[in-house]
User: Fold this.
Amino acid sequence: MKANETTKKAAAGRFKVGDRVKVKDMPNMFYTRTQNYVRGAVGTIAACTYQDLIPEDEAFNFDGKLEQYYIVRFRQKDLWEEYPFDNDTLQTETPEHWLEPVGK
Amino acid sequence: MAPRPELHQQYDIIASFQPALHAPQTWNYENAPPLFRAYMHPPHDVGGQPDVPIRYEEKEEEQWELNTYVTCEVLGWKGLWNAEERRRRADNDLGYTLYMGMPYYGRWIWAAARMLVDKKHISLNELLDKIAEVKARHEGK
Assistant:
């Protein structure tokens, strides 16, 4: 089978649009697509996108499981406290592995 | 043999890549210090870091850039690597100095060559011989 093909199915995603989530502050090692500046930040699920291998698996051709990807929206002020505009937001995409729920 | 002035010029350029401050570090192994996180930070995660303003230029790709893109995509269709492995190699594995110094598609072709050698599709000396052969052919034109 080619490196970029997969026959697996992912479990149903645990988050839905509007859920508050926190990005896990995992160690950095060798490869990631989860930016350093969102680690530990709380945001809101803006969209459930697709299911795919997670970058840390795919980058090393590890035959891992599929995961749901989400677009997470953060307030810029929550990422950079000196940011001057209250209403500006930043969106980034991350697989479920990196997210944990935040209590209401 | 490369002329000595060229060799010394290369060494001077390499010296300019080195950090200005060569302070011996005192590592605290029990509580990972900010220094450790900074060293382990993947080079391609540049968001939030300070940089100088750059001039935006509308520019077409060079022929070698298009050739590089197609070569890397064909290697993907052949199943030799996937897009994430390409990013890992071209954006992380090459290290900060090359990441900051090489042009965008220079990093792609570096990663493709490294992948082909790593996975034993070609030997390093086969690659070097071919590069030297092509270089000589172009210089003879």
Q: What stands out?
A: The longest helix of chain B spans residues 124-139. Chain B touches chain A at residues 37, 40-42, 45, 47-48, 76, 79-85, 87-88, 92 (CB under 8 Å). Chain B has a mean pLDDT of 90.
